[in-house]
Design a protein that fits this description.
By secondary structure, this protein is of the alpha+beta class. It contains 21 helices and 27 strands. The strands form eight sheets. Strands 18, 19, 20, 21, 24 and 27 form a six-stranded antiparallel β-sheet that branches. Strands 3-2-1-13-14 form a five-stranded parallel β-sheet, with helices on both faces. Strand 25 and strand 26 form a beta hairpin. The structure holds one RNA strand.
Length: 687
RNA sequence: GGAUCAGUAGCUCAGUGGUCAGAGCAGGGGACUCAUAAUCCCUUGGUCGGUGGUUCAAGCCCACCCUGAUCCA
């Protein structure tokens, strides 16, 4: 059979920001697939790189007082260490900030320009004078033009989910310096997509999954918008040849980074980029998340096609990671960085769990932490690894550490399992890793059943050779599982290779019986997960957030102390202390935590806000609060407050108020609504 | 607001319109002791999100609704 020639990439992680478990959904599944291809004997090269350009990196470097280059170098080293720890098998992990990428980006652009595919258009953009730069959407904040929520980013409102352009924001301000930006015109370069409508329509249906293609085809109902590929200075990136002070937009040189990294890898072995990318026999696959399909399935193929490069064979799109059925959350400690995970848990546990859950679809994947512990402990350790543990240790202890010939039943079972091997390999090929894991687990169940039925721990007292035969069978079955698991658990498989004294496994080795050879000393292959380690990891993920907010608080505390020192005279309460009461008086006041579901200004009143509060009851309550001068309604939605829940309902001109929100009054007469320090179940009572 | 995907046992998920809706884990009971308190046997769990419809037959097809996730360049 002919060897396939395969190029595989994962999306380039942005160099500003830590890797987290969501990123790993992509890198790990790509790695599984690549290792599977290599074990099939195919020529499979896997490249990836740090995505290093763009405004966020430039600004971060500016804030830290270092050059962008220093920033990306630091990020690169950390990234590579983490990938290594997760057993990633890149052929080359590069950086988009390299000469090859500059040359390729330029040549692709010049080719497009030569063909007349680059147009110029004047664009209105917000410009911050004090920062001296145009502001991308994420760097402008202001009031949402749709719902009036304050402090929303320039690309969309997190309160009402509206999307808009930064220019539409009311009262915009620069997210970096807080200054007021002005609208400026600037000429930008566009790569027009509309001429390639027919090409893209056809390309989409053939080179990605139906869901993704369908999603993107929605845009084909109207003219396809051009893609702005240029950015004004200052910008950290590649200068556009023939232009003054213009740079390639980071999303242009990022995918080109796939090619540039491949080129560097090819050069190192005396080949060229063309030997791979342009080889008609070579297959090109991109693994990406569903958030960046438009770059990979519209811009990228159109760019390549027109610049004279082959377009990808297929774009494999996956969903996002949820943790415990919800979006990853920093406050809940489920926004877990790769580094934090590694401090508490072994990498291979996550690799195994992800493999158990990934099925090649675009659906989001759930990391249920309880399920995670269960899967690893029960399936990987209890069922699969236990076979090696009980088999190898007994054969070393009682049978002189040497395999014999398998007994008939083991041989029969092994033959049956091998018959399913092609099914496992097909599952790997279509990235249905969970199917492969299910089959391996079934093998482990049957092997454990056979082992128990044979009772070698009793048999060994009567017949050592018969025992040797049973254990040889058990270990051959286990070996088959280890071979099949190797794409997922490469380090684990390497230990099994050592145990059997064999060369690195390929799938072809699955056909061979191992009989009559010595068995090495058994060493632990996989550790059980202590649920406490998972708890600690979640706590640590909360910690990092706490320290962040604490540093702010500390500043304020110090400031407060300084002020006290300068003004020691004013120590009296702003308002006289009320008369002393007993605990029974306090108990009469029923204070509850409430979540603000909705808030709106009351028409006809300049003081009141109408709040809809969830107090944990079947029906939300309506409460009127006279805090309008201190709070915009939007600022309260989603927050928690404290309310007096047993206050007699009071009829007001605007409706009935079913309680009272607790707030303090500042010396200047403004209000401060009280809220719990950490999110609390609505309806919780204060004592 | 528009759209896409999802909703099946306590948890994670299977389930080409056709017998009584399945698996693993967790839970309960028993067996065993070689093995990382691992393994083996038996077993309790379900208005298949809701309502209507199509059909001899619906978890599956259609409509509407609810909930969640995501996208709107």
């Amino acid at each position: 059979m002919d060897k396939r020639k395969i190029i595989v990439t994962s999306a380039l992680p942005y160099a500003n920001g830590a890797l987290h478990l969501g990123h790993l959904v992509e890198y790990l599944q790509t790695d599984f697939w690549v290792r599977y291809q290599r074990m099939m004997g195919n020529d499979c090269v896997y490249v990836c790189a740090d995505d290093t350009h763009g405004t966020p990196i430039m600004i971060r470097a500016r804030k830290e007082g270092i050059t962008p280059e220093a920033l990306i170098n630091r990020s690169y080293r950390a990234r590579v260490r983490e990938f290594d720890a997760f057993e990633m098998g890149f052929d080359l992990y590069g950086s988009t900030n390299c000469d090859e990428n500059r040359a390729l980006s330029e040549s692709i652009y010049l080719k497009l320009k030569e063909k007349g595919l680059i147009s110029r258009r004047s664009v209105d953009q917000l410009y911050c004078d004090s920062c001296g730069m145009f502001l991308p959407g994420r760097f402008v904040k202001g009031t949402c033009p749709k719902c009036g929520a304050k402090d929303q980013y320039g690309d969309g409102c997190e309160v009402c989910n509206a999307t808009y352009n930064a220019g539409e924001l009311l009262e915009p301000y620069c997210a970096v310096c807080g200054g007021k930006p002005s609208m400026r015109q600037s000429e930008q370069l566009f790569f027009e997509l509309e001429p390639f409508r027919a090409f893209l329509r056809e390309w989409l249906s053939a080179h990605t999954d139906a869901a993704t293609a369908g999603k993107l085809l929605e845009w084909f109902n109207e003219p396809l918008r051009g893609w702005n590929i240029s950015r004004d200075k200052p910008y950290f990136g590649f200068a556009i040849p023939g232009e003054k002070d213009k740079f390639f937009y980071v999303w242009l040189d990022a995918p080109v980074g796939y090619m540039a990294t491949l080129e560097r890898w090819a050069k190192a072995r005396g080949q060229t980029l063309q030997d791979w990318w342009q080889d008609p026999k070579a297959e090109i696959y991109h693994f990406i998340g569903k958030d960046i399909v438009r770059f990979h399935c519209l811009f990228w193929p159109a760019l390549l096609e027109n610049a004279g490069w082959r377009t990808p064979t297929q774009v494999f799109v996956h969903g996002f990671l949820q943790v415990n059925g919800e979006k990853m959350s920093k406050s809940k400690g489920t926004f877990i960085s790769a580094a934090t995970y590694l401090k508490h848990l072994p990498a291979q546990s996550l690799r195994f769990y992800y493999a158990c859950k990934l099925n090649g679809s675009v659906d989001d994947m759930d990391l249920n932490l309880q399920d995670f512990v269960g899967r690893v402990n029960s399936d990987l350790v209890g069922k699969i690894t236990n076979l090696a543990s009980r088999g190898a240790q007994m054969i070393n202890k009682s049978c002189g550490g040497r395999l014999g010939a398998m007994d008939a039943e083991s041989r029969a079972l092994l033959t049956e399992c091998r018959a399913q091997l092609s099914e496992v390999l097909e599952a790997y090929e279509r990235r249905d890793f969970c199917r492969a894991m299910v089959i391996v687990r079934e093998w482990a169940d049957r092997a454990n059943q056979l082992f128990d039925a044979k009772m070698p721990w009793k048999l060994v007292k009567e017949d050592v050779e018969a025992t040797r035969a049973v254990l040889t069978g058990t270990l051959n079955l286990f070996r088959l599982m280890a071979i099949v698991l190797k794409p997922v658990l490469p380090v684990y498989a390497a230990k099994v290779e050592t145990l059997f004294g064999e060369a690195p496994y390929a799938f072809a080795d699955a056909a061979r019986d191992v009989e009559g050879t010595p068995i090495g000393a058994y060493e632990h292959l996989a550790a059980r997960i202590d649920p406490k380690a998972v708890e600690a990891m979640v706590e640590a993920s909360k910690e990092s957030l706490k320290t962040a907010s604490k540093t702010l608080a500390e500043k304020d505390i110090k400031k407060g102390i300084r002020q006290l020192a300068t003004k020691p005279a004013e120590v009296a309460f702003p308002e006289p202390l009320a008369e002393t009461i007993g605990i029974e008086d306090f108990a009469k006041v029923d204070l509850r935590v409430a979540s603000v579901l909705a808030a709106e200004a009351v028409e006809g009143s300049d003081k009141l806000l109408r709040l809809t509060l969830d107090v944990g009851e079947a029906r939300p309550r309506t409460v009127f609060a006279g805090i309008r001068k201190s709070y915009a309604p939007e600022a309260l939605v989603g927050q928690q407050v404290v309310m007096v829940a047993n206050l007699a309902p009071r009829k007001m001109r605007f409706g009935v108020s079913e309680g009272m929100v607790v707030a303090s009054t500042d010396p200047d007469g403004s209000f401060r609504v009280m809220q719990p320090l950490t999110p609390t179940a609505p309806g919780a009572r204060l004592h």
